[in-house]
Input
Amino acid sequence: MKVFLISNPMSGKRRKPTQDLSIDLTQQLGGMEVVSRVTESIGHAEILAKEACEQGFERVIAMGGDGTIHEVLNGIMNSGAPDVALGVYPVGTANDYAYTLIKQPNRGALFTRKVDIGAVTCSGHRRYFINVVGAGFPGRVADLARELKRLPARIRYTLALIRCMGGAYRTQPIRIDSGTPAEYLMISVAIGMREGSYPLTPEAVLDDGLFEVLEVGALRRWDVFRYFPRMCRGDIPKNDPRIRTLRTPKLALESNGIIPFHIDGEDPWRKIPQPKGADFRIEFEVLPSAIAVELFGDRRSN
Output
């Protein structure tokens, strides 16, 4: 069985040259033939993954960071080819999804673990995500963090968070599932346990058919700084009524203005046209056990 490898040479953490990584991967695959391509630009991994599925490859491996995994996932899902499996070889700066795969290991045969993925619909366009969509504050933080790509993930996101604590700090009135509007600082809709290198949804399960949702209401700046050390440990406050977690297979967010958000840390407006007008709506749906996933590489790097 041939395997298609998509490698992002711009990913941030490579302890070995790409050729050596490919040799390691071939050994982990038990001698399966590996056909390799290197990405040349943002979005190229999605194109390559879709072409690989159309050419009959049944295993497509993303060697890169969370953004590369996101693109490969969407290429697979948009190919129309059933039962194509996704391999994850994490060499990015954050490797958030790989962190969850390590915490929830699969001890079965290669590519036998089925995991959930999420579908997000906005402005009539649908995208798939494998880790998390962060709305509100995380969307602004992710936007700034992308400008600091070469820094280690936690430093990058911490610097971006500090910058967002300035004049751009604000909450926003959001309606959840067409309910009464309330002020929210952030809403994270997660399948994985970590976002921006922080374990914000540590109770998330990869294959339970449910999102782990973190809702954070109108916290003051001081509250964010006070809770920050606990966030780093995955200790989400449970006695603050402005912070709530829930599990659900579907969710919709609405607002009278655009809600900034990221999809697996990526800029949504590259693929989704930015809406015009006052009304804004994002819909989320879990696709349970939608794809087989396998983790490769050096687990110490995550």
